[in-house]
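#lab-general

N.A. 3:47 PM
ok so I finally got the sequence cleaned up, no stray characters, all 445 residues accounted for. can someone with queue access submit it? mine expired

B.Y. 3:52 PM
send it over

N.A. 3:53 PM
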Amino acid sequence: MRVKGGIPDLLRFPSKQIRLLACISFLDMSARVLFITVGLVYFMVGVGMSAGHIGAVLTGSGAFAVLVGVPLSQLVERFGSRRVLTLASLGQGMGTVFYIFVEDLFSYALVTVWLMLCVRTGYAAKGAIMGVVLVDEDRTTNRSKIASLSNAAAGFAAAFGSWVLHLDDERAYRGAFVCTAVLFIVSAIVSTRLPNVEASRVAGGPPPEKAGASRLTVLRDRPYIALTVIDGLFTLQVGLLEIAPLWIAEHTGAPRWMGGVLSVLNCTVVVLFQVRVGKRVTSPWTAAIVNRRAGALLCVSCVLFGMAGEQAWIAVVVLLAAALVFVVAEMLHAAAGWELSFGLAPTGKHSQYQAMYGSGTSLGATVAPVVATVLVLEKGTAGWIGIGLLFLLSGFATPWATRWALNTPPRARTPCAGPPGSAVTTAGGRGAPQGSDGRVDAGQD
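B.Y. 4:20 PM
back already:
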Protein backbone atom coordinates (compact mmCIF):
# COMPACT_ATOMS: atom_id res chain seq x y z
CA MET A 1 0.00 0.00 0.00
CA ARG A 2 1.36 3.39 -1.00
CA VAL A 3 2.50 5.62 1.87
CA LYS A 4 2.31 9.39 2.00
CA GLY A 5 3.92 11.28 4.84
CA GLY A 6 4.07 8.15 7.01
CA ILE A 7 0.30 7.54 6.84
CA PRO A 8 -0.95 4.55 4.82
CA ASP A 9 -2.93 5.64 1.79
CA LEU A 10 -5.74 3.34 2.87
CA LEU A 11 -6.39 5.57 5.89
CA ARG A 12 -6.32 8.88 4.01
CA PHE A 13 -9.73 10.43 3.30
CA PRO A 14 -10.47 13.84 1.79
CA SER A 15 -12.96 14.96 4.46
CA LYS A 16 -13.92 14.52 8.09
CA GLN A 17 -17.34 13.13 7.14
CA ILE A 18 -15.82 10.31 5.06
CA ARG A 19 -13.44 9.47 7.91
CA LEU A 20 -16.43 9.22 10.24
CA LEU A 21 -18.24 6.93 7.79
CA ALA A 22 -15.14 4.73 7.59
CA CYS A 23 -14.95 4.58 11.38
CA ILE A 24 -18.64 3.62 11.65
CA SER A 25 -18.25 0.94 9.00
CA PHE A 26 -15.20 -0.47 10.82
CA LEU A 27 -17.11 -0.61 14.12
CA ASP A 28 -20.25 -2.10 12.59
CA MET A 29 -18.37 -4.79 10.68
CA SER A 30 -16.36 -5.70 13.78
CA ALA A 31 -19.56 -6.06 15.79
CA ARG A 32 -21.42 -8.12 13.19
CA VAL A 33 -18.58 -10.53 12.42
CA LEU A 34 -17.82 -11.06 16.11
CA PHE A 35 -21.46 -11.91 16.75
CA ILE A 36 -21.73 -14.17 13.70
CA THR A 37 -18.56 -16.01 14.71
CA VAL A 38 -19.72 -16.88 18.24
CA GLY A 39 -23.50 -16.37 18.19
CA LEU A 40 -24.68 -19.46 16.32
CA VAL A 41 -22.41 -21.75 18.34
CA TYR A 42 -23.64 -20.20 21.62
CA PHE A 43 -27.31 -20.68 20.79
CA MET A 44 -26.72 -24.26 19.67
CA VAL A 45 -24.43 -25.33 22.52
CA GLY A 46 -25.32 -22.94 25.35
CA VAL A 47 -29.06 -22.56 24.80
CA GLY A 48 -29.75 -25.88 23.12
CA MET A 49 -31.42 -24.74 19.88
CA SER A 50 -31.19 -26.84 16.74
CA ALA A 51 -29.38 -25.62 13.64
CA GLY A 52 -32.59 -26.04 11.65
CA HIS A 53 -34.59 -23.79 13.99
CA ILE A 54 -31.88 -21.14 14.01
CA GLY A 55 -31.67 -21.23 10.21
CA ALA A 56 -35.45 -20.91 9.89
CA VAL A 57 -35.52 -17.86 12.19
CA LEU A 58 -32.65 -16.18 10.35
CA THR A 59 -34.23 -16.82 6.95
CA GLY A 60 -37.70 -15.68 8.03
CA SER A 61 -36.54 -12.55 9.83
CA GLY A 62 -34.21 -11.68 6.96
CA ALA A 63 -37.01 -12.02 4.42
CA PHE A 64 -39.33 -9.88 6.55
CA ALA A 65 -36.67 -7.18 6.92
CA VAL A 66 -36.19 -7.14 3.14
CA LEU A 67 -39.93 -6.62 2.59
CA VAL A 68 -40.16 -3.67 4.97
CA GLY A 69 -36.74 -2.21 4.17
CA VAL A 70 -37.92 0.26 1.53
CA PRO A 71 -40.92 1.55 3.57
CA LEU A 72 -38.60 1.96 6.59
CA SER A 73 -36.43 4.27 4.49
CA GLN A 74 -39.20 6.85 4.84
CA LEU A 75 -38.07 7.31 8.43
CA VAL A 76 -34.90 8.88 7.07
CA GLU A 77 -36.80 11.39 4.96
CA ARG A 78 -39.10 12.19 7.87
CA PHE A 79 -36.66 12.40 10.80
CA GLY A 80 -33.26 12.80 9.15
CA SER A 81 -30.46 10.33 8.51
CA ARG A 82 -28.26 11.13 11.51
CA ARG A 83 -31.02 10.61 14.06
CA VAL A 84 -32.23 7.41 12.39
CA LEU A 85 -28.70 5.97 12.03
CA THR A 86 -27.90 6.75 15.68
CA LEU A 87 -31.10 5.11 16.93
CA ALA A 88 -30.62 2.10 14.63
CA SER A 89 -27.10 1.56 16.00
CA LEU A 90 -28.35 1.88 19.58
CA GLY A 91 -31.12 -0.57 18.71
CA GLN A 92 -28.57 -3.11 17.50
CA GLY A 93 -26.58 -2.67 20.70
CA MET A 94 -29.70 -3.20 22.82
CA GLY A 95 -30.73 -6.24 20.78
CA THR A 96 -27.33 -7.84 21.23
CA VAL A 97 -27.61 -7.42 25.02
CA PHE A 98 -31.10 -8.95 24.90
CA TYR A 99 -29.57 -12.05 23.31
CA ILE A 100 -27.83 -12.77 26.64
CA PHE A 101 -31.24 -13.39 28.23
CA VAL A 102 -32.64 -15.58 25.42
CA GLU A 103 -33.72 -18.99 26.68
CA ASP A 104 -36.11 -20.28 24.02
CA LEU A 105 -36.83 -20.11 20.29
CA PHE A 106 -39.64 -17.54 20.62
CA SER A 107 -37.51 -14.96 22.44
CA TYR A 108 -34.66 -15.64 20.01
CA ALA A 109 -37.00 -14.93 17.08
CA LEU A 110 -38.26 -11.68 18.62
CA VAL A 111 -34.76 -10.32 19.22
CA THR A 112 -33.60 -11.43 15.77
CA VAL A 113 -36.49 -9.67 14.01
CA TRP A 114 -35.76 -6.52 16.03
CA LEU A 115 -32.10 -6.63 15.03
CA MET A 116 -32.89 -7.23 11.36
CA LEU A 117 -35.20 -4.20 11.31
CA CYS A 118 -32.51 -2.06 12.93
CA VAL A 119 -29.95 -3.26 10.39
CA ARG A 120 -32.18 -2.43 7.41
CA THR A 121 -33.11 1.00 8.83
CA GLY A 122 -29.47 1.82 9.53
CA TYR A 123 -28.52 0.76 6.00
CA ALA A 124 -31.01 3.23 4.51
CA ALA A 125 -29.81 6.04 6.78
CA LYS A 126 -26.15 5.42 6.01
CA GLY A 127 -26.98 5.28 2.29
CA ALA A 128 -28.57 8.72 2.46
CA ILE A 129 -25.46 10.15 4.12
CA MET A 130 -23.13 8.48 1.65
CA GLY A 131 -25.19 9.86 -1.21
CA VAL A 132 -24.40 13.39 -0.01
CA VAL A 133 -20.86 12.91 1.33
CA LEU A 134 -19.46 10.70 -1.47
CA VAL A 135 -20.21 12.90 -4.46
CA ASP A 136 -17.02 13.73 -6.36
CA GLU A 137 -15.08 11.74 -8.94
CA ASP A 138 -13.37 9.75 -6.16
CA ARG A 139 -16.67 8.40 -4.82
CA THR A 140 -15.99 4.77 -5.69
CA THR A 141 -12.33 5.01 -4.62
CA ASN A 142 -13.31 6.29 -1.18
CA ARG A 143 -16.05 3.66 -0.93
CA SER A 144 -13.42 1.05 -1.77
CA LYS A 145 -11.22 2.32 1.05
CA ILE A 146 -14.12 2.01 3.46
CA ALA A 147 -14.71 -1.55 2.24
CA SER A 148 -11.04 -2.46 2.68
CA LEU A 149 -11.11 -1.21 6.26
CA SER A 150 -14.32 -3.15 6.85
CA ASN A 151 -12.65 -6.33 5.59
CA ALA A 152 -9.73 -5.72 7.92
CA ALA A 153 -12.22 -5.30 10.77
CA ALA A 154 -13.85 -8.58 9.78
CA GLY A 155 -10.50 -10.35 9.99
CA PHE A 156 -9.73 -8.97 13.46
CA ALA A 157 -13.22 -9.76 14.74
CA ALA A 158 -13.15 -13.30 13.33
CA ALA A 159 -9.77 -13.91 15.05
CA PHE A 160 -11.14 -12.65 18.37
CA GLY A 161 -14.28 -14.73 17.91
CA SER A 162 -12.18 -17.82 17.21
CA TRP A 163 -10.36 -17.26 20.51
CA VAL A 164 -13.73 -17.10 22.28
CA LEU A 165 -14.76 -20.36 20.62
CA HIS A 166 -11.48 -21.90 21.76
CA LEU A 167 -12.25 -20.92 25.37
CA ASP A 168 -15.71 -22.51 24.98
CA ASP A 169 -17.00 -20.93 28.17
CA GLU A 170 -20.44 -19.40 28.72
CA ARG A 171 -18.95 -16.31 30.34
CA ALA A 172 -16.69 -15.82 27.33
CA TYR A 173 -19.67 -16.05 24.96
CA ARG A 174 -21.64 -13.51 26.96
CA GLY A 175 -18.59 -11.28 27.17
CA ALA A 176 -18.39 -11.38 23.36
CA PHE A 177 -22.04 -10.27 23.21
CA VAL A 178 -21.25 -7.36 25.52
CA CYS A 179 -18.26 -6.41 23.35
CA THR A 180 -20.53 -6.49 20.31
CA ALA A 181 -23.06 -4.23 22.02
CA VAL A 182 -20.32 -1.78 23.04
CA LEU A 183 -19.08 -1.58 19.44
CA PHE A 184 -22.60 -0.70 18.24
CA ILE A 185 -22.99 1.93 20.97
CA VAL A 186 -19.65 3.53 20.07
CA SER A 187 -20.80 3.50 16.43
CA ALA A 188 -23.96 5.33 17.50
CA ILE A 189 -21.91 7.95 19.33
CA VAL A 190 -19.69 8.51 16.29
CA SER A 191 -22.74 8.80 14.03
CA THR A 192 -23.97 11.84 16.00
CA ARG A 193 -21.14 13.81 14.35
CA LEU A 194 -22.35 13.05 10.82
CA PRO A 195 -24.44 15.50 8.76
CA ASN A 196 -28.20 15.16 9.15
CA VAL A 197 -29.52 14.50 5.65
CA GLU A 198 -33.19 14.86 4.84
CA ALA A 199 -34.47 14.41 1.29
CA SER A 200 -36.48 17.62 1.33
CA ARG A 201 -33.44 19.66 2.34
CA VAL A 202 -30.82 18.33 -0.07
CA ALA A 203 -29.53 21.09 -2.28
CA GLY A 204 -30.69 20.62 -5.81
CA GLY A 205 -33.16 17.94 -4.76
CA PRO A 206 -36.52 17.38 -6.40
CA PRO A 207 -39.53 19.50 -5.50
CA PRO A 208 -41.84 18.24 -2.76
CA GLU A 209 -44.28 15.54 -3.79
CA LYS A 210 -47.87 16.51 -4.45
CA ALA A 211 -50.27 15.71 -1.67
CA GLY A 212 -51.45 12.13 -1.87
CA ALA A 213 -48.70 11.10 -4.30
CA SER A 214 -46.51 8.16 -3.39
CA ARG A 215 -43.14 9.22 -2.05
CA LEU A 216 -41.62 5.80 -2.73
CA THR A 217 -40.55 6.71 -6.26
CA VAL A 218 -38.06 3.83 -6.33
CA LEU A 219 -40.97 1.39 -6.57
CA ARG A 220 -41.77 2.89 -9.99
CA ASP A 221 -38.16 2.90 -11.20
CA ARG A 222 -38.12 -0.34 -13.19
CA PRO A 223 -34.52 -0.08 -14.49
CA TYR A 224 -33.21 0.39 -10.96
CA ILE A 225 -35.28 -2.55 -9.75
CA ALA A 226 -33.79 -4.62 -12.59
CA LEU A 227 -30.29 -3.71 -11.42
CA THR A 228 -31.32 -4.60 -7.87
CA VAL A 229 -32.35 -8.07 -9.06
CA ILE A 230 -29.05 -8.47 -10.93
CA ASP A 231 -27.11 -7.48 -7.82
CA GLY A 232 -29.13 -10.00 -5.80
CA LEU A 233 -28.11 -12.74 -8.23
CA PHE A 234 -24.47 -11.70 -7.91
CA THR A 235 -24.80 -11.90 -4.12
CA LEU A 236 -25.24 -15.67 -4.44
CA GLN A 237 -21.43 -15.71 -4.45
CA VAL A 238 -21.65 -15.32 -0.66
CA GLY A 239 -23.09 -18.82 -0.43
CA LEU A 240 -20.20 -20.22 -2.45
CA LEU A 241 -17.71 -18.87 0.07
CA GLU A 242 -19.69 -20.47 2.89
CA ILE A 243 -19.89 -23.95 1.38
CA ALA A 244 -16.37 -23.95 -0.14
CA PRO A 245 -14.83 -25.68 2.93
CA LEU A 246 -17.44 -28.46 2.68
CA TRP A 247 -16.80 -28.85 -1.05
CA ILE A 248 -13.07 -29.07 -0.45
CA ALA A 249 -13.44 -31.60 2.36
CA GLU A 250 -16.00 -33.89 0.69
CA HIS A 251 -15.40 -33.59 -3.06
CA THR A 252 -11.69 -32.89 -3.57
CA GLY A 253 -8.38 -34.43 -2.60
CA ALA A 254 -7.08 -31.18 -1.11
CA PRO A 255 -6.35 -31.00 2.63
CA ARG A 256 -9.26 -29.84 4.79
CA TRP A 257 -7.30 -26.80 5.95
CA MET A 258 -7.40 -25.39 2.41
CA GLY A 259 -10.80 -23.90 3.25
CA GLY A 260 -9.19 -21.68 5.88
CA VAL A 261 -6.34 -20.79 3.53
CA LEU A 262 -8.78 -19.62 0.86
CA SER A 263 -10.70 -17.50 3.40
CA VAL A 264 -7.51 -15.77 4.57
CA LEU A 265 -6.42 -15.27 0.95
CA ASN A 266 -9.76 -13.69 0.08
CA CYS A 267 -9.73 -11.27 3.01
CA THR A 268 -6.08 -10.28 2.45
CA VAL A 269 -6.46 -9.59 -1.26
CA VAL A 270 -9.57 -7.46 -0.68
CA VAL A 271 -7.85 -5.37 1.98
CA LEU A 272 -4.78 -4.80 -0.20
CA PHE A 273 -6.32 -4.29 -3.64
CA GLN A 274 -9.96 -3.18 -3.36
CA VAL A 275 -8.98 0.50 -3.56
CA ARG A 276 -6.95 -0.03 -6.75
CA VAL A 277 -9.82 -1.91 -8.33
CA GLY A 278 -12.27 0.81 -7.30
CA LYS A 279 -10.29 3.44 -9.20
CA ARG A 280 -11.28 1.71 -12.44
CA VAL A 281 -14.93 2.65 -11.89
CA THR A 282 -15.64 6.31 -12.64
CA SER A 283 -19.28 6.36 -13.80
CA PRO A 284 -22.39 4.16 -13.92
CA TRP A 285 -21.46 3.09 -17.45
CA THR A 286 -17.93 1.98 -16.58
CA ALA A 287 -19.48 0.22 -13.57
CA ALA A 288 -21.75 -1.71 -15.92
CA ILE A 289 -18.82 -2.85 -18.05
CA VAL A 290 -16.80 -3.81 -14.96
CA ASN A 291 -19.75 -5.79 -13.62
CA ARG A 292 -19.94 -7.67 -16.91
CA ARG A 293 -16.29 -8.65 -16.49
CA ALA A 294 -17.02 -9.71 -12.91
CA GLY A 295 -19.74 -12.05 -14.14
CA ALA A 296 -17.39 -13.65 -16.64
CA LEU A 297 -14.65 -14.10 -14.05
CA LEU A 298 -17.08 -15.61 -11.54
CA CYS A 299 -18.10 -18.09 -14.21
CA VAL A 300 -14.45 -19.04 -14.79
CA SER A 301 -13.92 -19.38 -11.04
CA CYS A 302 -16.93 -21.66 -10.65
CA VAL A 303 -15.69 -23.92 -13.44
CA LEU A 304 -12.28 -24.13 -11.76
CA PHE A 305 -13.81 -24.98 -8.39
CA GLY A 306 -15.78 -27.74 -10.05
CA MET A 307 -12.65 -29.11 -11.75
CA ALA A 308 -10.68 -29.59 -8.51
CA GLY A 309 -10.16 -33.34 -8.50
CA GLU A 310 -9.05 -36.05 -6.09
CA GLN A 311 -5.29 -35.71 -6.66
CA ALA A 312 -4.09 -33.56 -3.79
CA TRP A 313 -1.50 -31.29 -5.41
CA ILE A 314 -3.62 -30.69 -8.53
CA ALA A 315 -6.62 -29.87 -6.34
CA VAL A 316 -4.58 -27.38 -4.30
CA VAL A 317 -3.31 -25.58 -7.42
CA VAL A 318 -6.75 -25.46 -9.05
CA LEU A 319 -8.42 -24.26 -5.84
CA LEU A 320 -5.87 -21.48 -5.40
CA ALA A 321 -6.41 -20.38 -9.01
CA ALA A 322 -10.18 -20.49 -8.53
CA ALA A 323 -9.95 -18.46 -5.32
CA LEU A 324 -7.78 -15.78 -6.94
CA VAL A 325 -10.11 -15.40 -9.91
CA PHE A 326 -13.05 -15.36 -7.50
CA VAL A 327 -11.67 -12.57 -5.32
CA VAL A 328 -10.84 -10.41 -8.37
CA ALA A 329 -14.42 -10.83 -9.57
CA GLU A 330 -15.70 -10.08 -6.08
CA MET A 331 -13.77 -6.79 -5.95
CA LEU A 332 -14.91 -5.78 -9.44
CA HIS A 333 -18.53 -6.48 -8.56
CA ALA A 334 -18.28 -4.57 -5.27
CA ALA A 335 -16.87 -1.45 -6.95
CA ALA A 336 -19.45 -1.64 -9.74
CA GLY A 337 -22.31 -2.10 -7.30
CA TRP A 338 -21.38 0.96 -5.25
CA GLU A 339 -21.25 3.16 -8.34
CA LEU A 340 -24.50 1.83 -9.80
CA SER A 341 -26.44 2.08 -6.55
CA PHE A 342 -25.33 5.65 -5.81
CA GLY A 343 -24.74 7.02 -9.30
CA LEU A 344 -28.20 6.08 -10.57
CA ALA A 345 -30.12 7.27 -7.51
CA PRO A 346 -31.85 10.65 -8.03
CA THR A 347 -30.66 13.48 -5.83
CA GLY A 348 -32.48 13.57 -2.52
CA LYS A 349 -33.77 9.97 -2.79
CA HIS A 350 -30.71 8.06 -1.64
CA SER A 351 -32.33 6.59 1.47
CA GLN A 352 -35.10 4.73 -0.36
CA TYR A 353 -32.88 3.86 -3.33
CA GLN A 354 -30.16 2.41 -1.07
CA ALA A 355 -32.85 0.52 0.82
CA MET A 356 -34.10 -0.95 -2.46
CA TYR A 357 -30.63 -1.89 -3.70
CA GLY A 358 -29.76 -3.30 -0.31
CA SER A 359 -32.91 -5.43 -0.33
CA GLY A 360 -31.58 -7.28 -3.38
CA THR A 361 -28.26 -7.84 -1.64
CA SER A 362 -29.95 -9.02 1.56
CA LEU A 363 -32.34 -11.35 -0.24
CA GLY A 364 -29.49 -12.82 -2.24
CA ALA A 365 -27.43 -13.36 0.91
CA THR A 366 -30.44 -14.96 2.63
CA VAL A 367 -31.06 -17.59 -0.04
CA ALA A 368 -27.39 -18.00 -1.04
CA PRO A 369 -26.54 -20.84 1.38
CA VAL A 370 -29.58 -22.86 0.30
CA VAL A 371 -28.96 -22.28 -3.42
CA ALA A 372 -25.27 -23.08 -3.07
CA THR A 373 -26.01 -26.26 -1.12
CA VAL A 374 -28.57 -27.53 -3.63
CA LEU A 375 -26.62 -26.62 -6.76
CA VAL A 376 -23.07 -27.34 -5.62
CA LEU A 377 -23.00 -29.91 -2.83
CA GLU A 378 -25.80 -32.00 -4.33
CA LYS A 379 -25.15 -31.56 -8.07
CA GLY A 380 -21.34 -31.38 -7.96
CA THR A 381 -19.44 -30.06 -10.96
CA ALA A 382 -22.63 -29.59 -12.98
CA GLY A 383 -23.95 -27.36 -10.22
CA TRP A 384 -20.78 -25.24 -10.25
CA ILE A 385 -21.10 -24.78 -14.00
CA GLY A 386 -24.79 -23.93 -13.69
CA ILE A 387 -24.30 -21.21 -11.11
CA GLY A 388 -21.31 -19.94 -13.09
CA LEU A 389 -23.52 -19.49 -16.15
CA LEU A 390 -26.00 -17.59 -13.98
CA PHE A 391 -23.24 -15.15 -13.01
CA LEU A 392 -22.20 -14.85 -16.66
CA LEU A 393 -25.73 -13.98 -17.80
CA SER A 394 -26.19 -11.54 -14.91
CA GLY A 395 -22.99 -9.78 -15.88
CA PHE A 396 -24.01 -9.44 -19.51
CA ALA A 397 -27.42 -8.11 -18.44
CA THR A 398 -25.86 -5.25 -16.46
CA PRO A 399 -24.96 -2.93 -19.40
CA TRP A 400 -28.44 -3.44 -20.83
CA ALA A 401 -30.14 -2.48 -17.53
CA THR A 402 -27.75 0.44 -17.00
CA ARG A 403 -28.40 1.76 -20.52
CA TRP A 404 -32.13 1.53 -19.78
CA ALA A 405 -31.67 3.42 -16.51
CA LEU A 406 -29.54 6.17 -18.07
CA ASN A 407 -32.18 6.76 -20.74
CA THR A 408 -35.05 6.88 -18.22
CA PRO A 409 -36.14 10.05 -16.37
CA PRO A 410 -35.11 11.52 -14.01
CA ARG A 411 -31.61 10.39 -14.97
CA ALA A 412 -31.89 11.18 -18.69
CA ARG A 413 -30.41 14.62 -19.37
CA THR A 414 -29.63 16.75 -22.37
CA PRO A 415 -26.17 16.12 -23.81
CA CYS A 416 -23.36 17.94 -22.05
CA ALA A 417 -21.11 20.26 -23.97
CA GLY A 418 -18.67 18.50 -26.24
CA PRO A 419 -18.61 16.44 -29.39
CA PRO A 420 -21.30 13.81 -29.95
CA GLY A 421 -20.50 10.45 -28.42
CA SER A 422 -18.64 11.86 -25.42
CA ALA A 423 -20.89 11.71 -22.36
CA VAL A 424 -24.39 12.08 -20.99
CA THR A 425 -24.79 13.68 -17.60
CA THR A 426 -26.23 11.34 -14.98
CA ALA A 427 -27.66 11.90 -11.53
CA GLY A 428 -24.20 11.45 -10.13
CA GLY A 429 -22.77 14.08 -12.43
CA ARG A 430 -20.58 11.74 -14.49
CA GLY A 431 -20.77 10.39 -17.95
CA ALA A 432 -21.66 7.42 -20.07
CA PRO A 433 -21.31 6.81 -23.81
CA GLN A 434 -24.00 8.45 -25.87
CA GLY A 435 -25.13 8.99 -29.40
CA SER A 436 -25.80 12.26 -31.18
CA ASP A 437 -29.33 12.38 -29.74
CA GLY A 438 -28.05 12.45 -26.17
CA ARG A 439 -29.19 8.93 -25.31
CA VAL A 440 -26.79 6.19 -24.33
CA ASP A 441 -25.61 4.44 -27.47
CA ALA A 442 -26.45 0.75 -27.45
CA GLY A 443 -23.49 0.00 -29.61
CA GLN A 444 -20.80 1.52 -27.44
CA ASP A 445 -19.66 -0.99 -24.82
